[in-house]
Design a protein that fits this description.
Strand 7 and strand 8 (155-159) form a beta hairpin. The protein is α/β, with parallel strands linked by helices. The strands form 3 sheets. The chain has an 8-stranded mixed beta sheet, covered by helices on one side. It has an 8-stranded mixed beta sheet with strand order 7-8-9-10-11-12-15-18. It has 11 helices and 18 strands.
Length: 360
């Protein structure tokens, strides 16, 4: 009899179009963390991945939006609509009425096409959940978002962030935005979405995976990774993680020595997606840092791809130069890092790479 297995699939798009995690929890159950799209077809890549795998979409139990950034929320409403039994989880807000008012204000401005793509996606998700009478699960430190009903093995999904202070600051930000958000503003400006990113701890029996989202190390000890390291009760109950999705594209502000010292096992499976807009991430010095911490380091696509513009028609080039001279083409590169672990076995993680994914 085959042992049940956990499978973590990290989807990347080449550093500009987003990322997603599609995770098999065993016994046919799945969760999805964040969503991204194929820029040529507009399809939701995690939804496409599930369909290609022949997954019954009624078995998708939970969809998590880690934070309100376009590269993490693209196509998520389509994903949610097609997974009729999935709960929707996002960062906790204390003043839900004000938050919904803020979303509604921004949504109305979409008629003039002067707002955020992420607002449209988020508003659609709220409408889908309301119309289908499904429950939103708000994430916070040490909150259990999902547990499997089977008895032969344990699977639990916890959120480790956002911190209480970060959520409270978000409420203050919402109040300020509602007061200042007038007709002359082009869009709502969110100041610190990475500080509110949801870090996920995935437990399967005695094995742990830590999924770092875009959470950064903050100067305030009550925000970001410092808050998790110092305050999380959940992480103290379980062994250190053997799988780590490195936060924020391997950037320097996502690294903290105590994450690797206190939360991660020696030489873990380490995965990341690159960033290729304006600044290329991860930088070479951070690649060397992560290589020194793990000999099992994988990236969904190379981070050294040139964004040099292709040759365009002269008329097109003239229009771009006149209206948006900083416009640059982003290369789309589809890569998947698939990591599998057999529950109850002594075998190490098995890693398979697809598309542009490679080992560093």
């Amino acid at each position: 009899m085959n042992k049940p297995s956990i499978e973590i699939n990290l989807i990347g798009t080449g550093g500009g179009y987003g990322e997603s995690l599609v995770i098999h929890l065993g016994n046919g159950d799945w969760i999805v963390i964040d969503s991204c799209i194929d820029p040529y077809t507009g399809v939701s890549l995690p939804l496409n991945y599930l369909r290609d795998r022949g997954v019954d979409l009624e078995n998708v139990k939970l969809i998590i939006c880690t934070h309100w950034h376009d590269d993490h929320i693209g196509g998520i409403s389509t994903l949610l609509e097609n997974c009729p039994k999935a709960f929707f989880s996002f960062g906790r807000v204390n003043d839900l009425k004000k938050f919904l008012q803020c979303v509604s204000l921004d949504y109305r401005k979409l008629k003039s096409k002067a707002s955020n793509c992420s607002t449209l996606e988020f508003n659609k998700c709220l409408e889908i959940m309301n119309n289908s009478k499904r429950i939103n699960k708000l994430a916070a430190i040490d909150r259990l978002l999902y547990s499997n009903p089977q008895k032969e093995f344990i699977v639990e999904v916890y959120s480790l962030s956002p911190s209480d202070k970060s959520s409270n600051l978000f409420d203050l930000e919402i109040s300020k935005l509602i007061n200042e958000y007038g007709p002359n503003n082009r869009k709502i400006t969110t100041y610190t979405p990475n500080d509110r990113s949801i870090v996920i701890l995935l437990r399967f029996n005695d094995e742990i995976a830590l999924l770092g989202s875009d959470l950064e190390v903050h100067s305030d000890p009550e925000i970001g990774w410092n808050d998790i390291i110092e305050k999380s009760v959940v992480i103290g109950k379980f062994p250190k993680a053997s799988y780590f999705k490195i936060p924020h594209h391997g950037s320097e502000n996502g690294y903290h020595e105590n994450i690797w010292k206190n939360l991660i096992k020696s030489n873990p499976i380490s995965t990341l997606t690159p960033w290729n807009r304006n600044k290329k991430l991860p930088e070479e010095k951070m690649i060397e840092k992560y290589k020194s911490l793990s000999s099992n380091l994988f990236i969904t696509s190379p981070n050294n791809i040139s964004n040099k513009s292709k040759k365009r028609d002269n008329k097109v080039s003239k229009v771009i130069k006149e209206f948006n001279p900083t416009l640059r083409e982003l290369k789309y590169q589809y890569g998947v890092i698939s990591s599998e672990y057999s529950i109850g076995g002594n075998e190490p993680w098995k890693n398979n790479l697809f598309g542009t994914a490679s080992e560093l």
